[in-house]
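Glutamate--cysteine ligase: structure, please.
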Amino acid sequence: MSELLQRRLALLGAPEHLPLLGRSLHGIERECLRIDEHGQLALTPHPRALGSTLTHPQITTDYSESLLEFITPAEADPAQTLADLDRVHRFTYSKLAGERLWSASMPCSLPEEASIPIAQYGDSNIGRLKYVYRQGLALRYGKTMQCIAGIHYNFSLAENVWPLLRQAEGSSLAPRDYQSERYIALIRNFRRYSWLLMYLFGASPALDAGFLRGHPHQLKQLDADTLYLPYATSLRMSDLGYQSSAQSGLTPCYNDLASYTDSLRQAVSTPYPPYAAIGIKRDGEWQQLNTNVIQIENEYYSSIRPKRVTYSGERPIQALMARGVQYVEVRCLDINPFLPLGIDLEEARFLDLFLLYCALQDSPQLAGGECRACTDNFLKVVKEGRRPGLHLQHDGEQIGLRDWGVALLDAFAPIADLLDRVHGGTAHAEALASQRAKLDDPALTPSAQVLAELQGRGESFAAFAERQSRVHEAYFRATPLEAKLHGEFEAMAAQSLAEQEELEAAPRGDFDAFVAAYQASIIGVAV
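Here you go.
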């Protein structure tokens, strides 16, 4: 353990400060496809009974009309966060007729690209903008890749942690800048160590053979309908031949917030010739929001993002530049197809340990060589993380994945002890022990368990994931929401529909001018 980490843990472990560690906030966004009774992509519109995807705070869609996204409030107790997510699932199932939710990150057997429906958000200017943005994604990356689903884990330390650390370390930075610097430092460490999350929680070692649409690949054939890699942990986070050549040159620097936001601002304002060749409009109809490297900042695909809650009409970069980093969004987590929610409390508790370590451990800036090594380690683990004797790059040398993993878990142990002191019991120590067991025995990892099911049952990936979808459907339908909670969700859905109608009834002005103003909104933003 570094001296700096020891000092920070000693400070936060003092009796008068220890409660702060119990006030971290957690939120989850879970994406999942709607499928029909035959296990095929549901081509029906988003159920109106769930509310408006434009204005509902907890139930929306991501890329496709068929790709649901559930959003929890931020809670101090991850058990409460998961309870919130559970309630959203139960309400959703009360409104699904002849459909269910797909259990895995990699999609079901998909129809031809033209038949995959892009999400609709109504006739308001902001609703149209969201649709055109997704049209642009379809042109740039194809609709198939946009049907992959994942878990996003939002995390922040208690606000009072930062002034405490700032004072103890004698920082001359303004409070807002110190907090942002510490979150960016967290992200640098996340880049260093996130390969471990892929090994421990990756759950997509196989996929439906039709997913690649005939594109060249290096996957192996498990059966007539399934492709896989024998030691893969998360094909969802691999290249799969669908990476954007435009984004390949976009490597936002995480050495400070300004360099990160500047790189994204440049990307949303720099034309990319192949996109320019497509054009913004075709026969007067919008095809994409612009012809730049990325249309908006959210198009940048990253495993973690610095975030700040936005005001109405405000863009993410504007919020970051104006008020600094408030939390991080972890985006690399697969949906565990064995779990009804795709994630459980043990995983959430381990994520807390991991992220607190990233936040409190030394985090020197990433030099070019180390930055490349972080990427290489991550990609190596997603494709062959369970390969016996696998080695990664660490401080310019080779180190065994298991050895490095054990060393990291050892470093997490004092944090687990502090959190268990805050909450009582031994839940965090137990979460740590469960992950240590996976390092000792790769067969315990979700990715290994998925392949064991496919091979042991002689099932295709699609048949396995559909079977799990039915198991989860039965789980949620067996215990419907109590009447009071159900009524609250009904009211939320009705309110969201009313808000969308109000937006669409208001004078909206010219859409072209609206898009132009939206695009210009971050070009000249000042801190």
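Notes: The first helix runs from residue 3 to 13.
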